[in-house]
Amino acid sequence: MSDTATMAGLDPATLADVLRLAGSEGFDRIQDQIRRTGGCSDPIHLQGSTVTRDARSGHVLHSYSTDAEPGGRLRLACGNRRASRCPSCAWTYAGDTYHLIRAGLIGDPAKGTPPTIREHPRVFATLTAPSFGPVHNRPGNRPCACGIHHQEDAAELGTALTPATYDYAGAVLWNNHASDLWRYFTIYLRREIARRAGLTQKAAHEQSRVSFGKVAEYQKRGAVHFHAVIRFDGPDGPDSPPPHWATLDLLTDAIHAAAARVAVDVPPAGDQQARTLLWGTQLDVQPIGAFGNGEDITEQAVASYVAKYATKAAETTGTVDRRIGNKEALALLGVPDHPARLIAACLDLHALYPERKLRDWAHMLGFRGHFSTKSRRYSTTLGALRQVRADYRAAQQRVSLGLPDPADHPETTVRVLAHWTYAGHGNTPGESWLAANIRRDIQHSRETAREELPGQLALEGADA
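RESULT FIELD:
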């Protein structure tokens, strides 16, 4: 437990619950469960039991039941990727994303990519939305169009200079179709590569592959943009070198040409005219250098950047991280004017474009795609990384219980019978306070460990 001075700032209800927990008979086990979840903010509660038997003799090797747990429940981490919902689980998700992106940049045989992948042409591309109207900004050393030199953290940055003329409908429709824009971009990119190589698309596909890993990020104005690692591979993916014609310059030119070709048509509906959605003109493509060679865009920086934004969403613009059913809720939730107008536009447009599910994704300002995606051959998968972590913990559990390791005792077959039921989720006020302190202590320990290991990359231990 933290000291009394730390507890002094608690509200009466939380303080009373902390004292109740501290005096309860199962406090040590509650604390242990919370620590095992990493200080999860919204743990899942389960009730049930498991029995491990020797398949041949039927002898019970181990049994467990939540009947012996405080409250008769077992807590599991929620696994939410959003930092606004659960910082602990989001940190793990960011670590997994970091390793996934990094494996596709420097190579990691354990994650499906050879070290020779560092020699493949690869770039870090940023594709943005077009303008929907002028917004408050910081244009170099000049004042904003409103005449003010805004501070970096000014609340008005990214908001419309003239809300009455800002195209809020266009902004949310663009967000809603952003995944389609990306899909067409990847199609046109392969075509532009073949054209520049002087090959047919079939011949170019037989000689090379294009792999990518990307993440979506919200700008202050509420428009989604994508950051992507795009890499040239040989015909067999990362295990084969790209052909001689697959150069960095060719890839860069093809990206620019492909982005310029993309157009997604939105039909007219109600008072909305037909629209053609395009990528914005601010397309940035930079080569990725090897770590430690002095480049501005390095492998570590790219992997860390992508991992950071994989845990964020529209709440960075001032909106909320859960669904909003009607406009009246905007005032009750205290949503600022600019994101509130974007959400209202989603709710208004839902009846005109019901198939786009704009009401369901109003809190995301219309965006309904995945925040981090990758092509099949870029590197490993998040599922594979989670499985490695689960296998590691299972091996630890076997050792602590004295159970046989199947790899060391192939003649021994065990059978696990389990029965689980959902029993709720979340923490009491006192448990939330305890989880926050445990999460802070774990984070501090990890940061200290990284500082003591020279050269340790950011988030390196996230999946340990």
